[in-house]
Amino acid sequence: MISRRILRIKILQLLYAYFQNEDGDINKAEKSLLFSIQKSFDLYHYLLLLIVDVADYASSRIDIALQKKIPSFEDLNPNTKFIENKVISLIRENKQLKDYLVRTPLSWSRSPELIKKMHNRLRMAGFIKEYMENPVRSFDEDKKVIIEIYNKEIVAFESLYQVLEEQSIFWNDEVEFIISMIAKTIKGFNEESKEKNKLFPLFKNDEDRDFAVNLFRKSIVHQKEYRAIVESFAKNWDIERIALMDFLILEMAISEAVEFSFIPTKVTINEYLEIAKSYSTEKSRIFINGLLDKIFKHLKQTEKIKKTGRGLIGEMESVPEN
Which residues of the chain does CATH 1.10.940.10 include? Predict the structure, then answer.
């Protein structure tokens, strides 16, 4: 579930903390990395649970209205389309989600005001009104509206970010990515599968977990060596004014290119330039792009970068002739 880009970002953040911290305990730092990754998985399940709690709140509102001494026609004839949404029911009954919540107790019970605000926000959304007014009920329509709720409303709900920030320092920067994964999850739901619909695993495969741990460790172990390479190619720049984050981005990129033969260098360069958009200035991005191109050419010539299998894709035209 956790994409390689998110893994790279987490590694960058933990490397920054590691080199700012004087104790230099690599094992402790690695545990922090894995904990950060696990917290992303918690958020995935937590946000899946959110729509269930909103539906439960909507259901409770209908029950309260029915108990009025003088109920209105609307009170006696409530529109139950949202609370009976088949996708919400599939999430509620999902075995993997239930099992995860047993092991990792996640609950919105301490945030009743947030659930209320989310419910009121959805009631006002135009696409929700259209959904509720449409008398036709279908699984595809139910699926479409829940995906829209996540992509349009939950992702833009400021109160949600405030609550998440109070609960975990790891969560706020990842909401958009996690919601994209939830949308993909729901897209894959099948009505016939009932409680057995598949959720995403923490890692796509063992290779991704090994990638994260090895990239983190190699970036630390070879940091001085790769820093020296960066400095040797940055002679026209004021070394003292290069930000630590820019150095770390460059060092991580070198570590990845050298250590992972199955990842094409073009992929590595593109990934770290995308990361630099969020963690560096525009000037830094130009600097990183130019430097990585020169460094990678040099490391290929000296055979420190060797690509095999998938890593050879797009490499031939970038290798200079002898």
Answer: 222-318
Which two three-digit tokens encode residue 299? 């490391």
Residue pLDDT tens, the chain, 322 long: 788 999 999 999 999 999 988 778 999 999 999 999 999 999 999 999 999 999 999 999 999 988 888 988 888 889 999 999 999 999 999 999 999 999 999 999 999 999 999 999 999 999 999 999 999 999 999 999 999 999 999 999 999 999 999 999 889 789 999 999 999 999 999 999 999 999 999 998 999 999 999 999 999 999 999 999 999 998 877 777 788 999 999 999 999 999 999 999 999 999 999 999 888 888 888 889 999 999 999 999 999 999 987 777 766 544 433 2
Give the C-alpha separation, 121 to 58, whole Å: 12
Residue 289 CB neighbours (<10 A): 14
**In b/e form, how buried is each residue of 66-84, taking b as 16+ CB within 10 angstroms?**
eeeeeeeeeeeebeebbbe
Q: Which residue has the tokens 């109160």?
A: 159
DSSP H helices, 67-197, are 73-76, 86-93, 95-103, 112-124, 126-133, 139-148, 158-167, 175-187
The CATH H-level (homologous superfamily) assignment of domain 222-318 is: NusB-like (1.10.940.10)
Alpha helix ranges (H) inside 157-281: 158-167, 175-187, 206-221, 223-233, 244-259, 265-279
Q: How far is CA 44 from CA 97, 103, 202, in A?
A: 10, 15, 10
Backbone angles phi, psi at 170, to 5 degrees: -85, -15
Task: Report the C-alpha gap between 187 and 150 in whole angstroms.
Answer: 12
Q: What tokens were used for 285?
A: 């991005």
Separation of alpha carbons 208 and 157, rounded Å: 31
Q: Is the pTM of this model over 0.85?
A: yes
